[in-house]
Structure formats: structure tokens, C-alpha cells
């Protein structure tokens, strides 16, 4: 169950990062509110997952999901550049997430 909470926390990190961008520096009410609510939920789920998972594993996977997801949303939704170096960087982050999961002995 901890892994499910962690993945959901990572997905919510993508949501809050996107809406933070859309909030225009917290000057727009709705995107700002979505940012804050999803940020709190993401941190809460990360905290719950850390009851079982090691700190390093949970935090690395949470930030990795958020980083790769925000990168993908930036490219797909916001039209940001997807040059070979950025794609390689994203692939290396995914590889790190997979290795971290495979090396974990927690539930």
C-alpha cells in the first residue's frame, strides 16, 4: 500500500507543479488554490508512504515521478523543447527510479 501512496503522491506533484506554472506567481486564484491543495495532499501521501518505506527510496521516487512527469507535461501540454539531451536526462531519471524500486526491500 505504501507504494500506491507514493505513486499517487508523485502524480499529485506533477499536478501541483503544472498549476503552479498556471498560477502566474500565485496571482490567479483557481490555479493557486489547486496548487496548494494538491501540494498538501502530495506531502501527506509522501509522509504516509514513509511510515514503511526508507526515506531515501521514498523521496527519490517521489521527486523522480514529479520531475519526469513535469517534464512530460511541459513538453506535451506546454510545448517546451524536447531535444535529445533533455530526453536522455528524463530517461536517466526513469532508470534511477526503476533501480531505486528494485533495490528496495520495504513493503
UniProtKB/TrEMBL annotation:
Is Cell membrane one of the keywords?
yes
Q: How does it sit in the membrane?
A: Multi-pass membrane protein
In terms of superkingdom, the source organism counts as Bacteria
Q: Where in the cell is it found?
A: Cell membrane
Its transmembrane ranges are 27-46, 58-79, 85-102
Q: Which GO terms describe its molecular function?
A: transmembrane transporter activity
Indicate whether Transmembrane helix appears among the record's keywords.
Answer: yes
Q: Which GO terms describe its cellular component?
A: plasma membrane
Which biological process annotations from GO are given for this protein? xenobiotic detoxification by transmembrane export across the plasma membrane
Protein keywords: Cell membrane, Membrane, Transmembrane, Transmembrane helix, Transport
Q: Which protein family is named in the record?
A: Belongs to the drug/metabolite transporter (DMT) superfamily. Small multidrug resistance (SMR) (TC 2.A.7.1) family. Gdx/SugE subfamily.
Q: Protein name, please?
A: Guanidinium exporter
| Species whose genome carries this gene | Nitratireductor pacificus pht-3B
